[in-house]
Amino acid sequence: MESAIKTVVGVYLKSAKGKESLGEKDFQTLVKGQLSNIMTDTDSSKAVKEMRQGLDDNQDGKVSFQEYMKLIGYLANALSQQRSSENAAAGENAAATKSEAPAAKEAKPTAGEGPAKAEAIPAVKAEVADKEEEDEEEES
């Protein structure tokens, strides 16, 4: 966990290039380069701009570290919820019958969907959760 926190902070500081906050271009580069495996629409300049605006509480056109942490918190929460629902679905499928195909994964919302301030933040991709579960099983 300590390593993950250091990585989150390090990525922000490197992306900010010594400044106190991320400008539009720096934020877009961070999202596209660091989050494209767990978020949808990272290639869309419009979607990333909407996401940045949704995070920008003080409306200064930049993303501060605190505002960036809202994004990280949202992604962590979305991944947690996704894993919980996948585990529940897997349990239900196993109990029902072993011969049925597993439940289909939920569709990923795109930027512009979702609640209030997080409305432009895309959801975590199911593939990342699957990969992390495989990695955890290999470590066991």
UniProtKB/TrEMBL annotation:
<dbReference type="InterPro" id="IPR002048">
    <property type="entry name" value="EF_hand_dom"/>
</dbReference>
<dbReference type="GO" id="GO:0005509">
    <property type="term" value="F:calcium ion binding"/>
</dbReference>
<feature type="domain" description="EF-hand">
    <location>
        <begin position="43"/>
        <end position="78"/>
    </location>
</feature>
<feature type="compositionally biased region" description="Acidic residues">
    <location>
        <begin position="130"/>
        <end position="140"/>
    </location>
</feature>
<dbReference type="GO" id="GO:0048471">
    <property type="term" value="C:perinuclear region of cytoplasm"/>
</dbReference>
<feature type="region of interest" description="Disordered">
    <location>
        <begin position="82"/>
        <end position="140"/>
    </location>
</feature>
<feature type="compositionally biased region" description="Low complexity">
    <location>
        <begin position="84"/>
        <end position="102"/>
    </location>
</feature>
<dbReference type="InterPro" id="IPR018247">
    <property type="entry name" value="EF_Hand_1_Ca_BS"/>
</dbReference>
<keyword id="KW-0106">Calcium</keyword>
<dbReference type="GO" id="GO:0048306">
    <property type="term" value="F:calcium-dependent protein binding"/>
</dbReference>
<keyword id="KW-0479">Metal-binding</keyword>
<dbReference type="InterPro" id="IPR011992">
    <property type="entry name" value="EF-hand-dom_pair"/>
</dbReference>
<dbReference type="InterPro" id="IPR013787">
    <property type="entry name" value="S100_Ca-bd_sub"/>
</dbReference>
<protein>
    <recommendedName>
        <fullName>EF-hand domain-containing protein</fullName>
    </recommendedName>
</protein>
<dbReference type="GO" id="GO:0005615">
    <property type="term" value="C:extracellular space"/>
</dbReference>
